[in-house]
Amino acid sequence: MRVLIAEGLEPVRTRLAGIVREQDGVQLIGASSDLETTVEAIRREKPDLVILGSRLVDGTGFDVLRSVRGKGAPPALILLCHQLDGEYLYSGHAMGADFVLEAPRDIDLVPSLITKLADEQRRQNAGESGDGR
To answer: Distance between CA atoms of 73 and 132, rounded to whole angstroms?
Structure first.
């Protein structure tokens, strides 16, 4: 599984990068802090998972979601909001986030979500190859 991180706060971005690097079978393909770099990386690298912070240095995670919605959207997306309420939950899911978490409180959930998504990807790939593993 190839993972891209986009988060405006450097300490959170660094912590997420460490979490991703600790996961077996998961490759960190990039980490960005701004809107343009993030959108370009999603389109160019086609990550399997994007971990997206709600605050970037020049915009929001929601701006990224609007920019990549539809055909160019990553297969899996975890959105981290620094304030979690019903509006953020609804908007995040409506715009394509698979999981909406509160940062930094819920960051400890990220490793298990990565494992779950990677396992689902492996099962899907095994089914597509026809070997049923």
So the answer is: 27
